[in-house]
Write a structure and sequence with these properties.
Layout: H1 2-53, H2 57-70, H3 76-81, H4 88-101, H5 107-116, H6 120-134, E1 139-148, H7 156-168, E2 173-176, H8 179-189, E3 193-208, E4 211-224, E5 230-243, H9 250-269, H10 273-280
Parallel strand pairs: 1-2, 1-3
Antiparallel strand pairs: 3-4, 4-5
Length: about 280
Amino acid sequence: MWLHSAPIQLVSSVCRTGWRRVAQLLLLVMVVAIAAPSSAAQDVVTLRKDLATATDFRVRVAAALALGKKKDTGSIDVISKALTDESAAVRSAAATALGAIGDSRALAALERAKGAEKDDGVKKSIDRAIGALRGKAKVIVALGKLENKTGNAKVSSHFQAAAKAELAKIPGVQVATSDNDAVEKAKAMKLPTIALDGRLVQLQKEKAGSDVGFQARVEFVIRKIPEQSLKASVKGNAKALLDARAVKGDKELSQLQADAVTAAVQSALSGSSKAMEEAAK
């Protein structure tokens, strides 16, 4: 009994003497946790606005470099527009920022800017950014035809969104919206290109013990562009289950369907970068 009671008495003593201090610390942590994300988000919004509208070029330079340091991928578009800024210093800072962010989606904008740029210093900044990003992008992948064969039309848009989102996460992949877009990007970025067509083959109800949910199965075919030859295929399947007592209606069922489809797409595309690189050769 003593071994159990001593620690309890100690904790009780700490609670009696230090609860006010503990409460103050907890309140401070809560305030910081709530305020920090809002402050950071506001900071990014302000920097984007400064880059796009500030009349002083020095403010625009500072904003571009700050966004690059933050590696804010959501700012790629506004930074890319700054590649055409009237100030060479701002254009150079924008190129540097895009290189620092490290997202290969900026390559097309950098290539266009390089072709139009007259200032040698800015060209060097663009070349450095392109070099940094090109080392990451290895293949252009066009998201081709995506079919829903399940008869459940409600999941079609989610299947398309999940395929696009998961494809963009694959290391070394630069996503294109169509075969033609892929060919244009491939020329600009000097990279090989392939296309990915997919089918949502199955989405059926599942029951496991007290859990209910759905099982999804997807298939993707990789073809070489422009010759359209089939190179490989990848498949994935997954289940999304939830305690039946938590399923109240259509909202929960729809979410389970979406979760199953997303997980199946992830299952198919995870680890597929090697297959895509081989198909592009």
